[in-house]
Amino acid sequence: MNYLFRFCCLMFICGASVCAAAAEMPRLVQEHGRYSLYVDGQPFFILGGQIHNSSAWPGVLPQVWPALEFIHANTVEAPIYWEQLEAQPGQFDFANVDAVVAQAREHKLRVVLLWFGTWKNARCHYVPEWIKTDTAKYPRLIDASGRLTDSLSPFGVETLEADKRAFAALMRHLKEIDGERHTVLMVQVENEPGSLDSVRDFSPAAQKSYFSDVPAALTRRLNLPAGTWDQVFGSTAGERFQAYAVARYIDQVAAAGKREYVLPMYLNAWVRTPDDSEPDPPRSYPSGGGVDTVLDLWKAVAPSIDLIAPDIYLSGDTTYRRVISAYHRPDNALFVPENGNQPEFARYPFSVLGEGGIGFTVWGLDHVNDRTDIEPASASSYPELVPFERTFRLLASMDREIARLTFEGKLKTAMEGEDVSTHTLRFGKWKAIATFGRHNDGVRSASSQPTGELLVAEIGPDEFLATGFDARIEFNLTHPNLKERWQFMRVEEGVYEDGHWKVQRLLNGDECDFGVDFGGAGRILHMKLGTY
Ligand code: DGJ
Q: Measured in Å, how far apart are the chain's first and last C-alpha atoms?
């Protein structure tokens, strides 16, 4: 009886803590300068797929799930269209958002919702018709020659109120349908905002503001002298002014949403090409969006936006690294909500993890635009996604573990470069030496694309988790000496199942004598090191 009572108490306590964790809101946590997205009370790494712009309709959605299933995504990013949500002013139709959430649950996926409101790729194509047609009430951005543009003015008072109202209605509804379950993890507020047609708004309201002093709160925060926009920012004043106006607008939309339901909210940025050094107007991105050169300003003006996230379609490992390190800052968690779906991008989840990021999403992975049949989840249906499938498959099986390890600062990654490729990853007493190339001789033939990638994490004293492709790993002491040499004590190959490590075999002999090779199919290892 005594035992039964104790058992029941224990079950009650365990049950209560599981419920408490499940009831915990998704939230961004920052510790020791690192960020994590907590989902159900634990670190989570988004391995996502973003569906095409016009795929988030109830009758079309069934065609997107096989692609997500094929790559082993744990999260879908799906748009919510203002033109659908509020086709008539004040009348909200939640059919699309309900379908996204319900169908994602059926497919055991989490959701990031994308609010296609005032801005979508710097244009206003997703606003309802009643906004598109009433340019007096909902003014357009006006360029320097007085022409109306395909973008709304960030000074439109009624536009801002309408967007806030619609976004708040969406968040209120989300709380009703998902406040307990937390299928939806984050919300992107607008999509790649800014202006493509003009460096800034020249509408009467904008002109009045432009020829006034820069708000004192902003100059103080940026540690700049007081003055007009031209005086304070010189040749970049137009872009800074536009960024200020867009950031202030979007901050208010996000704040209105958070008053209803507090989910992490982010802004996605159409990034600057490295050679676009702030000309006026910018050539490679919308003026006023969250590009790296105006991140300080965005951070100062938009506190309701939890993070600013780069959409990366630019090619080249160096460029990729440069972009992610620009967006990973003490005041900004790194999340890459859109990545090109070309094969070269399939290695970059490793880069994002190594940089301490919270997620990586491949863009435009469904075939809704070119196929009408519902495809089975197979490589022949999605040949272009095969490289992503390979990477996601390994990482998805241990997404919680890698999220925790990267948050704790114990995880490092290395990628094969464009020439000879050997990398050293340092972990205190130990260093891991990665050699890339299918033949593991450290030299790749000039014709082949680099494919090698390696992730190593310290999971205990002298113990490491390692995974990767087309790479070989060896270790050594950080300070080798004549009296002490390194050795593998034990090398386990296995899998993660529901967060538990299951050993399938021990590797030794040919499989370990010259380091361990990960091969093209990849493997997951736990390794214990020692010395003799
Ligand atoms: C970036 C946008 O954010 C997406 O919605 C989509 O339009 C892609 N570009 C297309 O390349």
A: 54
Question: Does the beta carbon of 118 lie inside 6 Å of ligand 1?
Answer: no
* Closest C-alpha among 188, 154, 156 to residue 170: 188
Exposed (0-12), middle (13-18) or buried (19+): which is 378, by Cβ within 10 Å? exposed
Q: Are 72 and 444 in contact (CB under 8 A)?
A: no
* Model-wide pTM > 0.70: yes
> What is the tens place of the pLDDT at every residue in 228-253?
999 999 999 999 999 999 999 999 99
DSSP H helical ranges for 411-517: none
> Burial level of 471, CB count in 10 A (0-12/13-18/19+)?
buried
Spatial separation of the C-alpha atoms in residues 314 and 334, rounded to whole Å: 17
At residue 18, does pLDDT exceed 90? Answer: no
Torsional sign, CA 207, 213, 216, 219: positive
Residue 1 has pLDDT above 50, yes or no: no
Average pLDDT over residues 505-529: 96
Residue nearest to atom 9 of ligand 1 (CA): 121
Mean pLDDT of 424-447: 77
Q: Cα torsion for 489, 493, 494, 500, to the nearest 10°? A: 20
Q: 151 in ligand 1 pocket by Cβ < 6 Å? A: no
pLDDT (mean) for 52-61: 97
Q: Which domains does the chain have, with CATH numbers?
A: 44-209+241-397 (3.20.20.80), 414-531 (2.60.220.20)
Q: If you ran DSSP here, which 8-state letter would residue 287 be given?
A: B
Substitution candidate for ligand 1 out of 267, 285, 311, 339 with most atoms within 8 A of CB? 311
| d(C-alpha 195, C-alpha 202), whole Å | 12
Kind of pairing between the strands at 471-477 and 463-469: unpaired
The token pair at 43 is: 């670190």
